[in-house]
């Protein structure tokens, strides 16, 4: 019924499929890293966290305190658009939902108000409106700002990046 060549082809097919599966897992792990070890219980819920470029894990050096309002007033929309590239994996700005809700018109929009998107409920519990200050707090540490949120992004540690991003989102309008 099965000769040696047929059996060899079947075993080779399974080995090839296993190799493709393992290489796919390796490639996915290079793009995303499993949550865990982020301190304060972050990542303890499991899932994947989007890996982002940062300053090598070094704490920001002591800088003179500049308020978020001042940073927002001096924000660069073009730099904010560049910072938005980290958000594109889950969010769109064309009025359609993706993994996350669309973000055009998000500044001063009611929290959890995008029709057709299933929110976790954690956001509505901490804020009513996406003010620039609320967006700043959320973008700095989503899980710290709204514990239980479905957003797995680890946050933007630099206040200037957050201000630029909020300025870009404000420029999009609704």
Class of secondary structure makeup: mainly alpha
CATH class of the domain at 66-172: Mainly Alpha
How far apart lie the N and C ends?
A: 67 Å
Q: Give the name of the CATH architecture of the domain at 66-172.
A: Orthogonal Bundle
Give the percentage of residues in beta strands: under 5%
The low-confidence parts are 35-46
Strand order of the largest sheet: 1-2
| Largest sheet report | 2 strands, antiparallel
Broad shape: elongated
**How large, in whole angstroms, is the Cα Rg?**
21 Å
- CATH H-tier superfamily of the domain at 66-172: Cytochrome c-like domain
Order of helices and strands: HEEHHHHH
Number of beta-strand segments: 2
State mean pLDDT (0 to 100 scale): 80
For this structure, the CATH topology of the domain at 66-172 is Cytochrome Bc1 Complex, Chain D, domain 2
The percentage helix is 25-40%
Please give the count of helices: 6
């Amino acid at each position: 019924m099965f000769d040696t060549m047929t059996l060899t082809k079947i075993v080779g097919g399974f080995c090839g499929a296993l190799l493709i599966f393992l290489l796919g897992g390796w490639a996915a792990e290079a793009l995303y890293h499993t949550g865990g070890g982020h301190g304060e219980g972050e990542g303890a819920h499991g899932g994947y966290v989007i890996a982002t470029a940062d300053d090598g894990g070094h704490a920001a050096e002591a800088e003179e305190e500049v308020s978020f309002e001042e940073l927002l007033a001096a924000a660069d929309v073009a730099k904010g658009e560049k910072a938005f590239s980290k958000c594109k994996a889950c969010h769109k700005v064309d009025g359609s939902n993706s993994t996350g809700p669309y973000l055009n018109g998000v500044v001063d929009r009611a929290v959890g108000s995008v029709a057709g998107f299933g929110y976790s409920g954690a956001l509505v519990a901490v804020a009513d409106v996406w003010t620039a200050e609320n967006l700043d707090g959320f973008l700095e540490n989503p899980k710290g700002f709204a514990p239980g949120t479905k957003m797995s992004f680890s946050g933007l540690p630099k206040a200037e990046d957050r201000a630029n991003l909020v300025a870009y989102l404000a420029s999009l309008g609704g």
